[in-house]
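Entry 14. Structure prediction run on the chain below.
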Amino acid sequence: MRLLRFARNDRPSNINLFKSFTIIQIHQATPWYNLNMFEYTSYFEKDVLKKRPYIKKEWCERVVSLRKYIEEQPDGRFRFWGRIPNYGNKYLRVVTLPDQKIIHNAFFDRNFKEVI
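Output returned:
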């Protein structure tokens, strides 16, 4: 657990900028992108994770959150790609519904080529 201090200026003058401090706690066990922002379709929960148990939800959430490579499909869904260092630097493709918050499918895309 890390502690961060934020200064608050209680006076109009700049003489004592750091008069009082507020301490907040940041839990390192909870990644910054895992704030219950994402939901999963029943297809993802029942079929995808069963078929590909090596895929982690955290990886999918990180790929969608970082938004490095995005493409809209003709049906309105979105494809996201991201490199997963924990899995041999392979690219994970994550498909979301049009709202980009509900994850529908995920798999490692061996045909993806990074655009330089």
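Residues 1-7, 14-30 have pLDDT under 50 and may be disordered.
Filed with the rest of this week's runs.
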